[in-house]
Amino acid sequence: MGRPAIEVEHLSKRYRLGEEQFGITLREAVARSFRRLGRPGDRSRRDEIWSLRDVNLQVMEGEALGVIGRNGAGKSTLLKILSRITEPTSGVARTQGRVAALLEVGTGFHPELTGRENVYLNAAILGMGRRAVDRRFDEMVAFAGIERFIDTPIKRYSSGMYLRLAFSVAAHLEPDILVVDEVLAVGDAEFQAKCVGRMASAEQEGRTVVCVSHNLDAIARLCPRSVWLEQGSIQAIGPTAQVLNDYLGSLVSRQTEAWSTEDLESPVALRAVTILDPLGRPVEVLRRDQPFTIEVRFSVRTSIPGLDLSSPVINMHGVEVLCEGWGDTVPERPGDPGTYVARLEVPPVLNVGEYVVGVWIGTRYDTFLEEATAARIRLEGDVKGRPRRLVDLRLPWDVQRVADHEDRSLSLSESD
Amino acid sequence: MHPATPGHRRAWIENRPSRGLRGLDLRELWQYRELGGFLALRDLKVRYKQAAFGAVWAVLQPLVGVIVFTMVFHRLAKVPSDGIPYPVFAFLGLAVWAYVSSGVTKASQSLVSNSPLVTKVYFPRVLAPLASALPGLLDLAISLVVLGVLMLAYHVAPSWAVLTLPIWLLALVAVTLSVGVWLAALNVQYRDVNHAVILLVQLWLFVSPVAYPSSLVPDAWQPLYALNPIVGVLDGFRWAMLGAAWPGTGLILSLGVTAALLTSGVLYFQRVERRFADVI
């Protein structure tokens, strides 16, 4: 403890946009080098993207660090450099000990091979030796709960079984540094909890963990400290609760800024997305037993027949709890140019927690606009000891005392 | 058991922009030998899963080739075979050639077909073409057993030279990798390689002494002919197994070209490998 296990100094990574990211053909390469001959030094800066820019970071031995940020903020790039999958453009990343990168569950799983064969292959890919697997094989299979199918080719597995086996191998790795990207987002909740539990214990054993997730809840449980990346740079670093709070607060204001530089090509433009309380006042926090209204203000530039709008409400586990669209309920859809306000009242059905409200506008065939995080709402109140349920409808149970002569027949019908 | 015992200090592993040419890190390669083995084993297993005839295919390919070659080259074109019964002569050529052609093809695809690995985990990338050259050795071994049967049937007795077989096998793997490593690295950036490799292997067969002996090539052309790296190795195999003439100076040329290709291939590979994950 108290000694650094990861050191990152002035780390930057540049990607070039366009074809060069993918395989190009020889003909294109030749053509391009000729073009470059004609105009020397003409390599437009605009098709460059700095995925990371001058990042400095230290992670102590045995520490668990969360990495949060929006899509494209450079989180995955950071993990890829830490695990040496790709090299930085400048700067240096140092790691101490064996690094295992879990950027995907079941990396290298082959459908034709059996569960057993895949466990050994996958473990070898993740840097676990054959003997170590021998020693823990039974434990892994038991953890996944697929003892009966271990010698069946995994192409015959259900997707659930496949994920459990893959997770199980990952959960039994014994690296010094564990680098995890979003793998907790899949699998059923119960198994996820089991894995988070294992990783938390891994941390207690003195393992260093760097973890990227959109499941902010998991980050909060797993990582005492977090770093927030924004466009490749560190926006904040510190205790997770504080960083998460700042990050969530930024989601709304940032998006509003982004709309001012709108895409003029798009036939629709988003003006504002606001959450209103029952009195019509904009809010970010509300009691869970009150209804709220999602208000979307947008402009239509050219006439669009069959215009559709929907607004997904997503909880902090990434679950889309609601997604109401016009398609179901609006008979006369506005399609003429002009500015519109659409309001949707959401009754008090959602459980306590943080929600992100998105907006999608398009037609059956096109997507004109998609904002995954257009607004945010926090519902406060009593979880009544059931924090994991999605909806809280307070439906009335009907309870009656049964007369004694009916009792016998009732217990009979129950038993079959 | 505990991964981080106090007082136990490990060396830092650095990831920084690489410059210039780098040689192979043999120590690291050794550390990852298990993964290489598993990748090879995977390819082998996958190939024979749900294939009822399994390893029979490994023998069938050169065997059918020999029948066709005997009809076309020996009977019709009257191609000589240095005094060795033609079917035995051609079978060895085809068995070795089957290894080269499949090895080069597999190696050239080894990174692209393993792209999920390349983009999701670190391992010395050169392991991919290396591992892809291993499964073919099993097929070759089976073919060599069948060759033994053929030799018995045609009364061809091997001499003490057969003891040098491991050297020729090593040279064969080197030839395959010398081309394979180049193609694997190029294929990451230029998918043309997938098409080019088919053409290359086809043409290469005709300029290699598979169906005919290299003695058929006029003396003046021999040095140029031996620049084809497989020429010396094929002649060497026939010398070791069938008592054909010693390949002579041609062998030195072939091995020289192999060494040059392999060294430059590995250097090129190492130079571009850190970009693979971004480009693939």
The gist of it:
The complex is a heterodimer of chains A (416) and B (280). Chain A is of the alpha/beta class. Chain A is built from 10 helices and 17 strands.
Name its key features:
heterodimer; A: 416 residues; alpha/beta; Rossmann fold; five-stranded mixed sheet; 10 helices; B: 280 residues; mainly alpha; 13 helices; 1% strand; disordered N terminus
Strand-helix topology:
The complex is a heterodimer of chains A (416) and B (280).
Chain A: E1 4-16, H1 26-38, E2 48-60, E3 64-68, H2 75-82, E4 90-96, E5 99-102, H3 115-125, H4 130-144, H5 159-171, E6 177-181, H6 189-204, E7 208-212, H7 216-222, E8 225-230, E9 233-239, H8 240-260, E10 268-276, E11 285-287, E12 292-300, E13 308-315, E14 320-325, H9 326-329, E15 338-346, E16 353-362, E17 367-380, H10 404-415
Parallel strand pairs in A: 3-7, 3-8, 5-6, 6-7, 11-17
Antiparallel strand pairs in A: 1-2, 1-4, 8-9, 10-12, 12-15, 13-14, 13-16, 16-17
Helix pairs in contact in A: 3-5, 4-5, 5-6
Chain B: E1 12-15, H1 26-31, H2 33-48, H3 56-76, H4 86-113, H5 115-120, H6 127-132, H7 135-153, H8 165-189, H9 192-206, H10 222-225, H11 229-242, H12 249-272, H13 276-279
Helix pairs in contact in B: 3-4, 4-7, 4-8, 4-9, 4-11, 8-9, 8-11, 8-12, 11-12
